[in-house]
Hints:
The structure holds 2 protein chains of 2 kinds. By secondary structure, chain A is α+β, with helices and mostly antiparallel strands. Chain A has helices at 2-11, 13-50, 63-74, 87-97, 99-102, 123-131, 146-188, 190-198, 203-241, 252-276, and strands at 53-56, 79-85, 112-117, 142-143. Chain A contains 10 helices and 4 strands; from the N terminus they run ααβαβααβαβαααα. By secondary structure, chain B is α/β, with parallel strands linked by helices. Chain B is 32% helix and 25% strand. Chain B has helices at 47-55, 80-84, 102-112, 117-130, 146-157, 176-191, 203-209, and strands at 8-15, 24-31, 36-40, 62-67, 70-71, 87-90, 164-168, 195-199, 212-217, 220-226, 229-230. Chain B has a 7-stranded mixed sheet, sandwiched between helices. The two termini of chain B are 28 Å apart. The A-B interface holds A 11, 191-192, 194-203, 205-206, 280-282 and B 56-57, 77-78, 80-86, 89, 91, 95-97, 99, 108-110, 112-114, 156-157, 159-160.
Amino acid sequence: xxxxxxxxxxxxxxxxxxxxxxxxxxxxxxxxxxxxxxxxxxxxxxxxxxxxxxxxxxxxxxxxxxxxxxxxxxxxxxxxxxxxxxxxxxxxxxxxxxxxxxxxxxxxxxxxxxxxxxxxxxxxxxxxxxxxxxxxxxxxxxxxxxxxxxxxxxxxxxxxxxxxxxxxxxxxxxxxxxxxxxxxxxxxxxxxxxxxxxxxxxxxxxxxxxxxxxxxxxxxxxxxxxxxxxxxxxxxxxxxxxxxxxxxxxxxxxxxxxxxxxxxxxxxxxxxxxxxxxxxxx
Amino acid sequence: xxxxxxxxxxxxxxxxxxxxxxxxxxxxxxxxxxxxxxxxxxxxxxxxxxxxxxxxxxxxxxxxxxxxxxxxxxxxxxxxxxxxxxxxxxxxxxxxxxxxxxxxxxxxxxxxxxxxxxxxxxxxxxxxxxxxxxxxxxxxxxxxxxxxxxxxxxxxxxxxxxxxxxxxxxxxxxxxxxxxxxxxxxxxxxxxxxxxxxxxxxxxxxxxxxxxxxxxxxxxxxxxxxxxxxx
Lengths: 282, 231
């Protein structure tokens, strides 16, 4: 029956091509979305670490008060880690990094706390809370990349909001496309079906070849989509590496396996529903 | 040949097509085993409906249809394939696969009906010879005349050794010479004991055949004659 299915696919080459290419584009878009999600979630994990806060403490604040302030900051929701950077240590580093501009001057740094956030959505509120502490330099004691954090926050929020809807729409669109393709295949083979019904072919004999064809088409659509993803990834990587942006390795085998199997399953499901009504004996 | 008794009975059968006229209005008729019968009448008179009741493409709204002693009305949808294997159906438009040869067209139908490859190899040449088309086994449908194409359709109807053949306008697309050829093929099959029911409006050929003619008009039988005399 698999051989018959391949022969049938070869006979209806134009329709087969339409079906596989439609499916491939759909799965490619789905794959891109999954990768974008994965990239965004990785990014979301590292963003709080990238956007830390610097809290400048008043001159002469005792170590005990610093410790109490640090402990208090740790209890604020959205704060992941608080580290003390003594002014001597900060100055040492500055002198090491910039010897020409630090030579001959006194240490201008106050003691600092480095605050790493676990959720950048709360950065403004956290900054206000920290600013209100008596140990913090008044007015401008908390430094952080306010605009950048807001932008990143908005981008992640928008992606989280739009992503699932877009994913759902693509799934529905691909369903309609593959379903219609199978229906068109059935239409293009209505004489065959009619003959089978005239001579009393068992319903399974009529349906199974279409189901197998659906599986084959879906499998190849998934495989081609994986190839397209692989190519797109390689292209993007070559472009972004020039800008010093690091990319995780492409999961070649899992991507090819998952997309091909997903395609096969999807092709089967679409065929199953597409053949129900038109192949009913009449 | 099938061992079942080939008698058909229509008892006060009514068929209504929702939304439009046509159908049947209380038809009662009996067909004996080995008969050759024509249904004639104008378009919409009910000729094709008489055949479709037997293939279960149409279901009566009242009355009873019996085939080989079995009530067709009680046949479930899943039993239709087995029912169709007891008969040979010849459609007016031949319904041949254009990209398959004559041999492959018949072989495809046999495989679809569940016959083994060995059976196909053994029986296809026999069947093609039975309808005198064996010499064109390797030809494609577009290389055949209308009469030859119809003979392939008849050959396909024989794959299950049916005791009954139903032909819906088998000469509808043919000139008189080819129409007569087809009727001769059907006559030969009838002589071997196969019951033949033909829906047709080709009166010239029908009268020449000298067989039973049932005339339908607006869903009713208005005459039932054999060779020109009342049955």
